[in-house]
Amino acid sequence: MRTAASLVCSMAVLFALAPGAWGQARPAAPKAAPKAAPAAAAKVDYAARFAGLCAACHGANGRSDLANTPVLAGQPSLYAATQLFLFREGRRSNEAMTAVAKTLTDDDLRGFSDYIGTLPAVAAPPAATPADAARMAKGRALADQYKCVFCHGAELAGGQQVPRIAGQHEDYLRESLRGFHSGKRPGYTQAMVAAVSQIPVEDLDLLAYYAARFPGK
After folding, report:
1. Under DSSP, is residue 162 helix (H, G, I), strand (E, B) or coil?
2. DSSP secondary-structure letter at 147?
């Protein structure tokens, strides 16, 4: 299993290098007769690929209606790329996502994540019952107490490698937080595991309740 340090290095190489900068320059070759320039590679339509490969589970607009399936709408592209990378490298475990991610090239990771980054946040459909005001107030207090807003922002909108959690599905948030708490779910770094591991489970569930119902921007 790769160490966190090796993953950091791998991700740095993957996303810091510009396309076409993967190798070192070679010495100039001997002069030869001019050759016709190769045809430019066809641009891949990742919107179409998303519609064909991802939308069935994650929704055409990035807001899934399936249980325990994350909302992608409004997620930062770098966060999406990181998660795809972790699935591809076997660091995150999900049978369906692993099967998809293992087929993706580095260019695909960039292409899909860049497209996901263009999907605007989509508000959750109206709930069958209003949010419990007391639980929402307690959830807000816990988000401040446990410094959730320090990384995820006051609007819980995330950014860079930090996911948007405002309006995310409650079951997905609850399972993710419990996974970080137990160490079952790894992160790109140990930040979430360290932040969550000491929080009582009942507070994690209340945070999930709060974030899922927080509208954000």
Report:
1. strand
2. T
Q: How far apart are CA 189 and CA 12, in angstroms?
A: 13
| C-alpha angle 159-164-168 in degrees, rounded to nearest 5 | 175
Which pLDDT does position 37 carry in this prediction? 54
How far apart, in whole angstroms, are the C-alpha atoms of residue 112 and residue 123? 22
DSSP state of 190: S
Stretch (H or E) spanning 186: none
Name the phi and psi angles at 162, rounded to 5: -105, 125
Q: Tell me whether residue 127 is in a domain.
A: no
Over residues 18-46, the pLDDT tens digits come to 343 333 444 455 565 556 555 556 799 99
CA 209/CA 171 separation, integer angstroms: 9
Query: What CATH number should be reported for the domain holding residue 108?
Result: 1.10.760.10
Q: Would 97 be classed as within a structural domain?
A: yes
